[in-house]
Amino acid sequence: xxxxxxxxxxxxxxxxxxxxxxxxxxxxxxxxxxxxxxxxxxxxxxxxxxxxxxxxxxxxxxxxxxxxxxxxxxxxxxxxxxxxxxxxxxxxxxxxxxxxxxxxxxxxxxxxxxxxxxxxxxxxxxxxxxxxxxxxxxxxxxxxxxxxxxxx
Length: 152
Fold this sequence. Notes:
4-stranded mixed β-sheet
């Protein structure tokens, strides 16, 4: 009898812990705006993952990774949105691209899932250095976690 009470108490405590940490929370799809085209052809020379909660922060991230480039900031309402940047670094041809697979809220954070498209052997690509990236605006101010499919 006493052992049953101890087990029940442990199980209820574990359930409370799971719910409190968001592990029991449902995944809710989150709409986003893709701002990549609005900032132009920037070149991120290394893998970059960053969140900006103000125009100043976004400008700093873009300027740090693109020194000397005249930057065009996209129109973002930072009162209600934040931006999330993911860049894959330099690639050897025009056949590479980053795609946002899905974005969802999960408990106390936002999860952004991306996949890198890599060219197949017969794809018509040009050999030149490219810098695939995605800049999205999210209607949230929660921490953002990245899940990059196909990468370790």
